């Protein structure tokens, strides 16, 4: 990559860089998916290479697995790890209780399984991801391809009795063909605008035949590291009830910026 990082990439990078400081020698770490998580993987790769950090990474997508291997992180499966010390991942939205919408990158199923199998989950995000109420970002719902249109009709019908503002959905596409997840499924993006009761919606969606998982992450995230375009980072820990702000110094000529990827 040449030239300066955009403020949004700077924000994503500083969030990832700060979060990498939570990773300790010997940890089994869940590695998220998306552009912010990709920064994290690069930062960890640098720590493995330059500082001798020894970690085992469990990626949440084939994309992240490839990147992790490329930067020298030892990759193992969740079944090999069994349980993780920490997962660090991006998010599409987070609210004041650190409930999340995830799945913008289509990896919500593995992301939720991995985050749930971790002692701690930390979200890394630019400040633009913070919302008062979840739902402006379309809610991804992973559905099996068999009868997906019937599942979509059922989902939309169910939304009539839910506390949401919008009730339409679209099949996620990859060009001219439906997007296929790592698990071979499709994704319906629900255009809800505002979700009044996230717990109820998450439960109801997951009870429907054909729905594999939804992108609402409730009571899973422990802390969020928020990056700003000017290099500030804020760490909010929901369990400790603490908020700390600092500024990270970094050099844009760093090797890390040579390949933005994702
Ligand atoms: O949930 C995700 C992938 O399924 C991502 O974490 C989410 O979409 C955020 O992505 P980015 O860091 O690129 O903004």
TrEMBL record:
Class of enzymatic activity (EC top level): isomerase
Residues annotated to bind substrate: 33-36, 89-92, 102-105, 129
The gene coding this protein: rpiA
HAMAP family given in the database record: Rib_5P_isom_A
Subunit structure: Homodimer.
Top-level taxon in the UniProt lineage: Bacteria
Cited function: Catalyzes the reversible conversion of ribose-5-phosphate to ribulose 5-phosphate.
Coiled-coil boundaries: none
Keyword Nucleus: no
Protein name per its UniProtKB record: Ribose-5-phosphate isomerase A
Known pathway: Carbohydrate degradation; pentose phosphate pathway; D-ribose 5-phosphate from D-ribulose 5-phosphate (non-oxidative stage): step 1/1
